[in-house]
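Handoff note, outgoing to incoming analyst
You'll be picking up this chain. Sequence as last confirmed:
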Amino acid sequence: MILRFTLEPADNTRLARVCGSLDAHLRDIEARLGVKLSRREAQFRVEGPKAAAERARSLLEALYERSRRPLAAETFELALVEAGADASDARSRRPEGGEGPLVLRTRRADLSARTPRQLQYLQQILAHDITFGLGPAGTGKTFLAVACAVDALERSSVQRIVLTRPAVEAGERLGFLPGDLTQKVDPYLRPLYDALYDLMGFDRVTKAFEKGQLEVAPLAFMRGRTLNHAFVILDEAQNTTPEQMKMFLTRIGFGSRCVVTGDTSQIDLPRGMTSGLVEAEQVLARVKGIAMTRFTSADVVRHPLVARIVEAYEARAKRAAKPEAKQA
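Most recent structure output, in case you need it:
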């Protein structure tokens, strides 16, 4: 199919922002959507499958609409990710069994699912008491989970948010850290604080901590607790032991919702130790009331190089697994 269209009103500055330096943005769109793009000034020609060609046209028109101001690299990349996914599913954003659009109450008015799996993840969090989000870095597992937690708190669906993760270093041994308990564990929990600040704002987060609506704690402090009417997130769950994972999952009380996130390709436990997330994925796969979303490199919404890095490591892991399979 061949589509011809013109971006209006004519504006060379906006056109330059959309096309990028030496039409670099157009080449990226071609590679992502599998189409062939050519243009003469503001007149464009798109050649490719019907759905892909129409998606390329929609993307260029959307970018042109935004180009009244300079287009940040992040803005272009996120728009490209959305276009590369199933756009019709991403735009519907309807929760399972729901009638209206899925809207989360956070400070980020533009927050929405960028890929079909992100949409599925959000739907599962809303529909299940326990949800697992597994996949590589940059897929939005933690950020979307925190967004759902903030939304639940704003709607008074829960009374507090509890964020936790195991205090395990990424391949280093930092030794004893200075300061009181809070200062010792803060470095491990910093990504969770960052997500909260982004979604709620610094002042709102500070007030929520003072009121007891927010709690951030290492996993080691969860034993013996029962968490009622809370939204609980366990981040970096690949670094839990099977005993820790079982302990955490059995903390969930009435009126609570739990999200467990992790990347089984980045386990920092001592060699030979089983990951609690790997075991839970196998043991709980068919348990009613538990949902699992498995992200891939196609869901990465960071710098495009991150997706290619993830793909390279995944390919290497598959090659290494083949000789083992033959020997078995």
